[in-house]
Design goal:
It is a single chain. By secondary structure, this protein is mainly beta. It has two helices and nine strands. The protein has one domain: Porin (Beta Barrel).
Length: 222
């Protein structure tokens, strides 16, 4: 499965580099709201994170375009449990990503776009803060830091996006889904103050298999 996705990415890149059609550049910014990740979260426990995109689309033929560029998006959660004493866990992850997507320009009217493809994502920052009251006496032990060096950093996610364009301005809604089976944890267990039973993050396999939706606004600059 992973090999087929890698081959698809290579094919998209080759098509983009060989295509001589007209290209356009869009910039946008907004927010992302993530869920899942093997953590029971809901709206209140899933803080919104900012997202920013630079998208370049190039016409292939008819109403079909190919889209690439550079993107940054965030995921995370805020969780409270009371198993081995009151415990809190807050995670904020930030990705730098390269999308490879097909775009359907509905009716060639440059009003409504539908995009779908793969986003190759690199984890640039992973801030984790966890606290535990082991003896339930009100004394919280707090551990906090950037744990990205102890996690796997490369991930592949699928993205579906709808965009409405008004002159040079655009509004987009999008959904992203991390492909299952990608292990987040590397060697964090040996570098964190809480063990797998005490740490929500480790016990949840490092917030893997997440999904998210987002909203953004922007404009065409070329």
């Amino acid at each position: 499965m992973r090999n087929s996705k890698n081959i698809l990415i290579i094919l998209f890149i080759l098509v983009i580099t060989q295509c001589r059609g007209q290209y356009r550049v869009f910039i946008s910014a907004g927010f992302t709201q993530s869920y899942g990740g093997n953590v029971n979260t809901f709206l209140k426990a899933s803080p919104a994170a900012w997202t920013a995109d630079v998208e370049v689309d190039r016409k292939v033929f008819g109403s079909l375009h190919l889209v690439s560029g550079l993107s940054s998006y965030g995921v995370g959660y805020s969780s409270t449990k009371n198993i081995f004493g009151p415990a809190n866990s807050n995670y904020e992850g930030r990705f730098l990503a390269v999308p490879i997507m097909a775009r359907w320009n509905l009716g060639n009217r440059n009003f409504y776009y539908i995009d779908f493809g793969i986003v190759a994502s690199y984890l640039v920052q992973a801030k984790l803060t966890e606290s535990l009251d082991k003896f339930k006496n009100g004394n919280l032990i707090v551990y906090s830091g950037d744990i990205a060096p102890h996690l796997n950093r490369f991930f592949q996610v699928a993205k579906f996006q709808q965009t409405f364009v008004f002159n040079r301005f655009l509004i987009s809604i999008f959904f992203i889904f991390e492909f299952k089976g990608q292990n987040t944890l590397k060697d964090l267990s040996g570098h964190w103050g809480l063990n797998a039973q005490q740490s929500t993050f480790i016990n949840s396999n490092g917030y893997s298999d997440f999904y998210a939706y987002g909203f953004k606004m922007g404009c065409r600059i070329r």
